[in-house]
Write a structure and sequence with these properties.
PyrdxlP-dep_Trfase_small, 2 domains, pyridoxal phosphate binding, globular, transferase, single chain
């Protein structure tokens, strides 16, 4: 029998890859599933973005292989974006590498820097791909807790007390998914100082900074970060372009060159039409984002009503999701979420998929219309009312 590689022994199929197939199986014309689980924006990119794609795609000369480092105009648009949004200067020739979505960058960075046995600091709760990639490259996982008592902040003093001599990469993600935590400049500075002291690479995954966040920030704006930091960013969430697979990694030349060694052996440059479209998308102005965030604010109000009905508790947060704690009387949150799914055809993400620290939590996505959120709220209200009435009905029969 042909055996699979040992490197995938500790890696499971991505939760949403498996679960969404189950969710789709519940869909019927009579009652459609309302998916409040996944963070895939349902609105369109700006019209200028779409127009740029169409115009470029009509040019017969634009369909060949492209440079691995992207066209100069795309890199310049990224640099302009960083200057305008984060007050951060990047060299367009040496400090920016476009990616086919920032998710691929997680693997490229790990392959470029992590040797088998190196330790990788993983946020708990956090994006599951950090752990999966660490396993795939043979790293030793070192989860670090984001503490509810610190409003999901990192206890840097506690981390400092541990042995960090074998750490190669620390993954951070601010604004954080799933908790919506926004780090202060002081917190980012403390993390950069920690990385400098112990000489490990700190990578900030930063796709949510423009969603319901009044203070977008890049770790590369922090003093000393150029020595130890990389930043991943993306058009997926902030520009409604998740399916377009457009992102980048930014940082100093030596780090970017190392990532390019991996990337150039794994894929080719992205379609030129996509690069032209991305260049336009990065020019979206303040009014466009203000309108986008107003939509999310209105949706969030309904999402919070849904969480109130479920008896959950939550704090103020940014990003595309609402992170909430399940009621104390719920013994098994995953089972509870499945009961809601099969009883209402409303899918909510259970927090355990983000790590042990998320086991008592759920996550609601804002990536569906206000009308659909309202429908989900009514379905859940009806479901809970029937549940409450069930014991009384049984007693009456007896």
């Amino acid at each position: 029998m042909i055996q699979t590689a040992k490197r995938i022994a500790n890696v499971e199929e991505y939760y949403f890859s498996r679960k969404l197939a189950e969710v789709r199986g519940l869909d019927t014309p009579e009652l459609r599933v309302i998916n409040l689980g996944i963070g895939s924006p349902d609105q369109a990119p700006s019209s200028a973005t779409i127009d740029a794609l169409i115009a470029s795609a009509k040019n017969p000369a634009h369909h060949g292989y492209q440079n691995y480092k992207g066209i100069p105009a795309f890199r310049q648009a990224i640099a302009d974006f960083y200057r305008r949004v984060y007050n951060t200067t990047l060299n367009t020739e040496t400090e920016i590498l476009p990616l086919m979505g920032s998710k691929e960058g997680i693997m490229h960075i790990a392959m470029a820097f992590v040797n088998e046995g190196d330790e990788v600091l993983i946020p708990n709760p956090g994006y599951p791909t950090y752990s999966s990639v660490a396993n795939l490259v043979g790293a030793t996982l070192r989860p670090y807790a984001l503490k509810e008592s610190l409003n999901w902040g990192i206890d840097i003093a506690e981390l400092e007390k541990s042995d960090l001599s074998k750490v190669k990469i620390m993954w951070v993600n601010f604004p954080h998914m799933p908790t919506g935590r926004v780090a202060s400049r002081e917190e980012l500075k403390a993390l950069v100082d920690l990385a400098r002291k112990h000489q490990f690479l700190i990578v900030n995954d930063n796709p949510y900074s423009l969603i319901l966040n009044d203070n977008p920030m890049s770790i590369l704006s922090i003093e000393g970060a150029d020595e130890v930091a990389l930043e991943l960013n993306s058009l997926s969430k902030s520009h409604n372009m998740a399916g377009w697979r457009l992102g980048w990694v930014a940082g100093k030349k030596e780090f970017i060159d190392a990532v390019l060694k991996v990337k150039s052996n794994m894929d080719s440059g992205m379609f030129l039409g996509l690069q032209h479209a991305a260049t336009e998308a990065l020019k979206n102005g303040e009014v466009w984002f203000k309108e986008l965030n107003q939509v999310y604010r209105q949706r969030k109000q309904v999402a919070l009503q849904l969480l109130d009905v479920l008896g959950c508790t939550y704090a103020d947060q940014s990003g595309l999701f609402v992170w909430a704690k399940a009621p104390d009387h719920i013994a098994d949150v995953e089972k509870w979420i499945d009961e809601i799914l099969y009883g209402t055809k409303v899918f909510i993400t259970p927090g355990f998929i983000f790590g042990e620290a998320g086991r008592r939590y759920i996550r609601v996505s804002l990536c569906c219309t206000e009308t659909m959120l309202q429908e989900a709220l009514e379905r859940v209200k009806s479901f809970l009312k029937k549940q409450a009435a069930a014991p009384a009905a049984t007693t009456a029969k007896v």
